[in-house]
Amino acid sequence: MNKVHIIGAGLAGLAAAVALADKGWRVALYESADHAGGRCRSYLDAELGVRIDNGNHLLLSGNRSALAYLHLIDGLGTFAEQGEAAFPFVDLATGARWTLRPNNGTLPWWVLVPGRRVPGTSVRDYLAARRLRNAGAEATVADCLDPKAVLYRRLWQPVAVAALNTAAEAGSARLFWQVLSETLGRGAAACQPLLPREGLSESLVDPALAMLKAKGAEIRFGARLRALHFIHRRAAELDFDSGLVDVGRDSVVLAVPGAVAARLVPELVVPDDHAPIVNAHYRVAAPAAAPAFIGVVGGTAEWVFAKREVVSVTVSAADQLVDRPADELADLLWRDVAAALGFPAQPAPPPSRIVKERRATFRATPGQLKKRPATQTRWNNLLLAGDYVDTGLPATIEGAIRSGLAAAEAIARHPVARASEWARGARQ
To answer: Are 371 and 236 contained in the same domain?
Structure first.
C-alpha cells in the first residue's frame, strides 16, 4: 500500500493521519514546530508554574467527528463526565443567573419550561430561530434574529460569537444554523459537555501520537516545508529545509494554515480575513461550588472555565481587546471572573497569563465562506485539511477534525483511481 505524506500536525493533520493509519496506510507526518496540536495544545507556563491550555475549547457530544477521532485514539476516557447537558450563564449587568437545560430527544419541549430556558424569554422567541435554517447565502445572524430581543443578548449572540469567532452582526446565518442543528437541535444527547481532565494535549494530541507510533508511522518535527513541486497534475516533490522528498505514487495531505497553503499551492484561494481571540489564565483555585464553565453576558469576559490549577477566560472576536496591554486585560477580565464565580473582592488579580491569538481563525462571514476551498484540489494526489477548508462548519475543533477525516476518507475511498491518475500523468 502506498504512503500518505501529511504536512502539519495540528488536529486536522492528526485526524487524517490516525484515520489512515487505522486503515493500514503507511503514514509520514511532518510538522514544522517541535510539538503537535497547533492551536489546540497544553504547555507548562514557566512564569505561572502550572500547565495551561493554549486556549479554551468546549467539545459537545454532538461533535460526531471529534468523537470519531477520540474513538480512534482511545481518548474518550481522558474527558470528565459533566452529568446532564446543562449550560450555566450569568448576566453581569443584572446579576441574573440561569442554566439552559435541553431535554432528551429532538422535540424541544424544554422551551416550554421556564426553568429550562433563558429567563425573560418566551416559546415564540425560540421558534424564531427557524429563520436561520432558510437564510440566504448573504444573511447574517443579526439579519435573521432580533438583536433587541432578550434571547438574542443572552443566548444567540454569545453562542454565535464563540462558534463563529465573528460578531453576530457579521457572522453567517447559515453556518450558525449548522452549528445549532448538530448540537442544540438534537437535544440533550448531543449537548453533553466534554472537558479534558488534564489538558488539551493529554486528551487530543498525546494519544494520537502514541497511536501513530504504535502503527509504525513516521513522525518528523522541525520539518518546515518550503515548497511543493508539481509535475503535470500531481504534487511530485516535498521541498523541506532538510532536503527533497520524492512523492512518486503517494498522496499528500496539506494540513497547514490557509495562508501557508495559499503560498504553497498555485492559484489556491483561501479565507484571508482573520479575527483575534484573547485568553486569560489565572493561577487560582476556583470556589468549590463553581461550575466547570459558565457563559458571561454583559461583561468583557465571555466564557470562564474552572480547571484544576487555573481559571481561564476566553473572548472571541476580540478586536477591541487584542491591542490593550496585558496588565490592563488581566485586571479587566478578573473583575468579570470574580463576579461570575463568586470570588471575594481583592485589590489585584492573582498571577496571570494573557494569551493573544491575533489571527486565531478566519471570520465566518458570508464573504469569507465563499473563499473556502474544497478538500480535493486540481492536483490529483493533493488534498487539503484544516479549519479553513469547506466542511460546512466554522473554524472549530470539530471543523478541523472533520476536514482531516474527510481528506483521509477521500484517499482511502479511491486508491486505485489515484494510482491510475498517476500513471496517466507520468505518460504525459
So the answer is: yes
